[in-house]
Here is the input.
Amino acid sequence: MIAAGAMLLGVAGMASLSMAMERHHEQIWGKARLQVWRVWALRAVGWALLITAAVATVRLQGTSMGLTLWAMEISLAAVCVGLLLSYVPRVLPWLLAAALLAAWVVTLGA
Amino acid sequence: MKALGFRQANSWLHTWSGLLLGWLLFAVFVTGTLSYFRQEITYWMQPELHGSQAHPQAAEQALQTLRREAPDAASWQVTLPDERNPTVRTRWYEQGERVARNGGKSLTLDATTMEPLAGRPTAGGEFLYRFHFELYGMDRTWGRWIVGVATMFMLVAIMSGVIIHKKIFIDFFTFRRRKGQRSWMDAHNALAVLSLPFHFMITYSGLLLLMFLLMPWGMDAAYNGDTRAFFSERGRAPVQAPAGADAQAVPAPQAMAPIGPMLEAANRAWPLGVASISVTLPGRAGGTVELRQKGAQTLLNHAASERMIFDAGTGELKEAILTDVPAAGVSTYNVFSALHRLRFADAWLRWLFFIAGVMGTAMVGTGMILWVVKRLPQKRKGQYHAGHRLVERLNVAALAGIFVAIGAYFWLNRLLPASLADRAGWEIKGFFLVWALMLVHAWLREHKQAWKEQLYAIVVLYVGLPIINFQFADSHLLATLSNGRWTLVSVDLVLLATAALAAWAAWYLRPSAGPVRKPKPAVQATAQEVAP
Here is the structure.
């Protein structure tokens, strides 16, 4: 269950990091709303989520196994986020929220 | 002539090293990716084994069967059923017999009834696995050299690719659809960058695994050519003879303690449970029972499994062989080679690696297609020479043809009679024959037509396999889904997904395909002639 939780955190983290990028931020909210504090907030949240996922997998499976699982999961998460961005960019904020909620539920269940 | 700048020089290197070995690398990536599931593929290719269902008493009953079948053996080995293969695999060696890979006598048993199961002879996933690092039909050393050189070029292509990618962070998540060459470029970049850790790891570790063959000089110098001594010192010695194999007198009979409590003790210590049991001197005084852990705790020791050794007579734990972590240099080698082989992984991690492998395959494939797409403007201007045509033809045979050949391999597995002499060999011959036919086909047909026809062939072959599985009682999707045989379900679903992908690619090539009303005519024309 931790593996699934870390995967969801990875998806949320990658979604957050992508929304902090100018091109994708614009895709979702348009030019007007690009503000420095939003960019930094999204970036900080994204990294925090990825690091949380790393800590969780390492605590579950040890350093070498945990980091392997983490690296593979965030790679897949990045691919999913990339695909969504090119087909349905506007779902990303909702994806972020849903993935966080699901990660919370999954971790509580564990 | 003016010298090329740094980035241009790398671009040249990337293009031509990629082109030269891309076809071989694509085949290596396809078969290597499938090798993550080679046990599952082999199991899928033996429908005679599909009725077996894992049973909690399988270990106890398997030992009883061995007691009946091989009462005087020097050692027994039992591989327990799991989700990758729900049969019981037993192997035993007679007194004084040499222990070797695939040596002794073996029997595959139904995990519930303990009836012997006779799977049809097939090389299964093992053929694909062997092909991905030593090819086929040539001296093993030559094959490994060829793949090793290709792997080096792959590493060069990865490094130079990173150098020439100008917007590696800005374009991190970017894929612009329906833009002809731009889309191919984006796809190639995204596939490469998003899975870069995997691509680097799999290429570098592949080189490390072939290193002792390609560059044995350091090892030769230090060990005077005694390769065995080197590997045994590094803790990877070949299986040693079991205790008592060379004993003159066979020890007195002694009843064996029940296996149940030993398994319980092991299951408490190991989260994934027990993978296999080996018994030395079964039914004799001084015998031992060794349990081997499923999975592993760390990659630093080559993801070695822990072992527990019990006294066969009393059932007491004699020794627990825990995994120790070696020095840093050896650890690095261990981590990389363990990651490449992935023997330790559970199902989820195995799927993650499989998906990454698919992305690596697609990265190589899109690179090969990009070479052709980039040269389309030249083609339209009539500046198109034999080299272009050669690459186009080889692309079709390498990128689509290999999937047709794998489809044919699976079909032959289903169609050839079980009694055929050298049956496993004919499956493999069929694979290469069909692949060669695809090359001839790509040679004779017009480029786009060749793509379409081979894609249709993939669709027909891969949709047909799950259908032809209905001739076996336990192998078709309705049975496997209702019995929860996820291994078999997954193989069929991956086949169907591949067919769907091929169908989509063929649809993309339909006459009216291409971006609708794009401002730049050059880009539009490009996309119309693009192959998938």
User: Anything to note?
Assistant: Residues 1-45+122-234+345-374 of chain B form one domain. Residues 235-245, 513-532 of chain B have pLDDT under 50 and may be disordered. Chain B has three domains: 1-45+122-234+345-374, 53-117+239-321, 385-532. The interface with chain A takes residues 170, 172-177, 190, 194-195, 197-198, 296-300, 335, 339, 344, 348-349, 352-353, 355-356, 359 of chain B (CB under 8 Å).
